[in-house]
Amino acid sequence: xxxxxxxxxxxxxxxxxxxxxxxxxxxxxAGAGTATARLGPGERWAVxxxxxxxxxxxxxxxxxxxxxxxxxxxxxxxxxGVKPANARLLLNxxxxxxxxxxxxxxxxxxxxxxxxxxxxxxxxxxxxxPDQSAEGGLAKYLVPWDADPTNLFASAIPMEEIDRxxxxxxxxxxxxxxxxC
Length: 181
Description:
Blueprint (H helix, E strand, L loop, with lengths): L1 E8 L5 E8 L21 E7 L14 H14 L8 E5 L5 H15 L5 E7 L2 E5 L7 E5 L9 H4 L1 E2 H10 L4 E7 L2
Parallel strand pairs: 3-4, 3-5, 5-9
Antiparallel strand pairs: 1-2, 6-7, 7-8
């Protein structure tokens, strides 16, 4: 049994909190270790992205995004039940808009089946910009290495696109973890 508390704070300082209890049961064959624990009958796939340094010097550097991404990637391979062939790691200049789209909309879409589990971890900048057509009047983006901060619509990855990626994947179990501002 795990107690999970989620707190969200918007740019105006408004906060919302949700507390949930999650019960996880794992049945394993005798002698099986936690490294291969499965929640379902399929494979486990992972995409891990970490960006500390950005192509455009106007985008501030981060201190721990790549180190965190590398640690998550190592954990998923060593103890998280992800086969190395089922994982992709994109760090800094490898995490371009095109590469992120390819790994999410190409690699995962082509490989993951309905019985599989998909884990996506992103550590890097996230941002918003005013957009009256977007929910809440703000368009939300993940910021790839090659983003142009003066033209996010053309160079960043809108969260609506991430929603579309989820809808296009056959996998019914998808977990996305974002360590973003």
